[in-house]
Inverse folding.
């Protein structure tokens, strides 16, 4: 067995090296996936602005049509009621000076209203054309984003294919090492159980001897404590038992933190899926937190960098269940569940699982934490 140890150690180190390479590649793919999520996030924002622009454009056109129709109706009424007479015709047809002044003033008022209506129509037309130009620009921007999105998606697909091939090769090695470790644990448990049985047998023999000679056992029990009695009585006074300090009170949002952690734990074992945000399709890292927090009424974007901008910053020493934790330049994230652990969707080929934030890889790539509850 001892002779086999170096060989197992070499293979384990080789597997660890491959796993570290997979982690690096996975981090790259994860970052690319988050860039895709970011592009989708921006695309959604652009689509929302585009819808608003189209609604504004539609309203502007409706207002333009209404203004033109109103102007036409005003002109028809103007001439049907004779308001379009010249000043001379008004004077000749009037019976008094007051009637002349009233008729001229009414005519001028109508003409002013017509002028205002025409000006409003012209301004509406200018605004409408400006909105049209903005709409065309927005569409061009959206087209560029879509092309960028397609290019990013293609690049991610290539990297995923390469990584899956590498993952396939390392999985066989890891499975073999895990089988060896399970066998080792079985052997260690067998030895421990054998030792425990030996200790129990020894204790039974000692008990049997004590029961067969009670006088011999009781004498030392009475005489032994007598000499050190004065000294023993001083020890409790000289060294009182240490006072236990109670743990700090939980934060006000501890119940919600426990609630969101309990929800997240339901999805342990759900496969990782790039771009996924539901148990049926699988999760990526930001999709998992988005889905879990939505169930307690907290809306998070499907984008790790955007989630990092929410809530307030929290140091590692202040972490509480429900806090969001971020790694690798915001290329990966998860949710702290307490006890130095966090739940996350790590990588393709893996599942939603619990890991320690104290792992060397996590410590080296720590970015920060945010509290959104």
């Amino acid at each position: 067995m001892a002779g086999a140890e170096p060989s197992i150690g070499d293979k384990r180190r080789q597997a660890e090296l491959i796993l570290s390479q997979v982690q690096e590649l996975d981090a790259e793919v994860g970052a690319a996936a988050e860039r895709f999520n970011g592009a989708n996030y921006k695309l959604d924002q652009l689509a929302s602005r585009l819808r608003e622009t189209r609604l504004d454009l539609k309203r502007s056109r409706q207002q333009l049509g209404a203004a033109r129709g109103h102007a036409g109706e005003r002109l028809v009424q103007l001439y049907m009621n004779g308001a379009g007479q010249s000043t001379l015709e008004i004077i000749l047809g009037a019976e008094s000076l007051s009637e002349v002044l009233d008729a001229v003033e009414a005519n001028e008022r109508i003409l002013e209203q017509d002028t205002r209506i025409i000006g409003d129509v012209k301004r509406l037309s200018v605004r409408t054309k400006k909105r049209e130009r903005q709409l065309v620009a927005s569409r061009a921007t959206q087209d560029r984003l879509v092309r960028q999105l397609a290019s990013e998606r293609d690049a991610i697909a290539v990297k995923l294919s390469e990584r899956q091939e590498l993952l396939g090769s390392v999985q066989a090695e890891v499975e073999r090492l895990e089988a060896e470790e399970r066998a080792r644990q079985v052997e260690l448990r067998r030895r421990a159980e054998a030792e425990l049985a030996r200790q129990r047998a020894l204790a039974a023999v000692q008990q049997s001897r004590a029961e067969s000679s009670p006088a011999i056992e009781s004498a030392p029990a009475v005489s032994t404590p007598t000499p050190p009695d004065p000294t023993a009585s001083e020890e409790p006074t000289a060294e009182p038992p240490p006072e236990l300090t109670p743990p700090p009170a939980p934060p006000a949002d501890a119940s919600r933190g426990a609630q969101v952690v309990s929800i997240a734990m339901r999805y342990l074992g759900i496969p990782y899926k790039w771009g996924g945000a539901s148990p049926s399709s699988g999760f990526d890292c930001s999709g998992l937190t988005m889905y879990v927090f939505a169930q307690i009424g907290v809306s998070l974007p499907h984008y790790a960098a955007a989630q990092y901008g929410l809530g307030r910053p929290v140091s590692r020493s202040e972490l509480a269940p429900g806090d969001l934790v971020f790694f690798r330049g915001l290329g990966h994230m998860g949710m702290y569940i307490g006890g130095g652990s966090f739940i996350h969707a790590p990588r393709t080929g893996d599942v939603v699982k619990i890991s320690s934030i104290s792992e060397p890889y996590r410590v080296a790539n720590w970015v920060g934490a945010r509290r959104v509850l």
In short: The radius of gyration is 40 Å. Strands lie at 277-278, 282-283, 312-314, 324-327, 332-338, 341-344, 353-356, 366-371. Confidence is low (pLDDT under 50) at residues 1-7, 221-250. Residues 97-212 form the longest helix (116 residues).
